[in-house]
Amino acid sequence: MTVCIRAELLKLRRYSVVRAGLLMMTLSVLLVLFYSTAQDDTVWDFSLYISMIQQRNVQYFFPVVLALTGGYCITREEGEDTYKNLLTVPLSFRRILAAKAVVLLLLTAVFSLFCTLFAVAANLLRRFPGMSPAAVLGAAGAILTTNLLVYLAVFPLVFTLGCRSATFLASLPLAFVYGYLATFEGRALNLFPLKAVLILTDPSCGAGFDVQYDPAKAALVLAGFGVLDLLLLLTRGPRPPETAPKPAAAAARKKGW
Q1: Secondary structure of 190-237 as H, E, C letters
Q2: Could you report how far apart the first and last alpha carbons of the chain are, in Å?
Q3: Which among 214, 186, 182, 185 has a CA at the least distance from the CA of 200?
Q4: CA–CA separation, 221 and 191 (whole Å)
Q5: DSSP letters spanning 106-161
Q6: CA 3 to chain centre
Q7: What CA–CA distances, in Å, run from 166 to 61, 74, 239?
Q8: Most buried pick, 36, 76, 168, 252, via CB within 10 A?
Q9: Whose CA is closest to 71, among 204, 213, 171?
């Protein structure tokens, strides 16, 4: 398994999609900085700044980042027709997906660290009060924890629709809608996975809307998704899903008589 993970990490050097994920993490910070310019009564400090970044990651950016990077890494094997070589090693499709799941988990940590560093660098210019070494470490832990929980919630989408080239692109708008639904408020959303992430990581979730969420129910929802994620990997067959054969190229017509 270690060899498989190492091989997947080496493949990342050829994938520009990782840079796209880093770019999207900067957009999360930039969007919050744009919000901070609004002329209202909000008193901004470093704690609120980081909390808003966590919310934007859950609601807009990180589900799409996971769907994009995870689905791309999986479907590259199909696009480059390398499954036939991997399966003759022999290496089961389940083991290939498990290695990619571990790599996506490591990328989640990398994206979270990059988001924290960019947020701190941006705050050196914006100068929200309250930033200290302890606050920066707390921010890194909060962003990492939030994104890891998003990983649990988005995993089924990535490792179902994202496993085939035919459905990979469809998973991207679905991931965006999936995250956007977490912007709504209501008691029924206590059972919605991405809202459950906010309930557990954002103490102000539901404040101002007269909604009281139950963190215990949110924790059970995400624990259930963790079990579902494991079942999705364990129940995968030894071979990838069959793909439609490519149409044969038309024979070139001879010139002349």
Answers
A1: HHCHHHHHHHHHCCCCCCCCCCCCCHHHHHHHHHHHHHHHHHHHHCCC
A2: 60
A3: 214
A4: 6
A5: HHHHHHHHHHHHHHHHHHHHH--TT--HHHHHHHHHHHHHHHHHHHHHHHHHHTTG
A6: 24
A7: 23, 12, 17
A8: 168
A9: 171
- Residue given tokens 């809608």 in the structure block: 177
Token pair belonging to 63? 């589900």
Which residue bears the tokens 């149409």? 247
pLDDT digits (tens, 9 = 90+) for 21-63: 999 999 999 999 999 888 788 889 999 999 999 999 999 999 9
Crossing angle, helix 93-126 and helix 2-11, to 10 degrees?
50
Per 3-state DSSP, the chain is made up of helix, strand and coil in percentages (nearest 5) of: 75, 0, 25
Least confident of 84-88, 121-125, 238-242: 238-242
- Say what the pTM is: 0.88
Surface-to-core class of residue 41, CB atoms within 10 Å of its CB (0-12 exposed, 13-18 middle, 19+ buried)? exposed
Among 119, 13, 137, smallest CA distance to 76 is for: 13
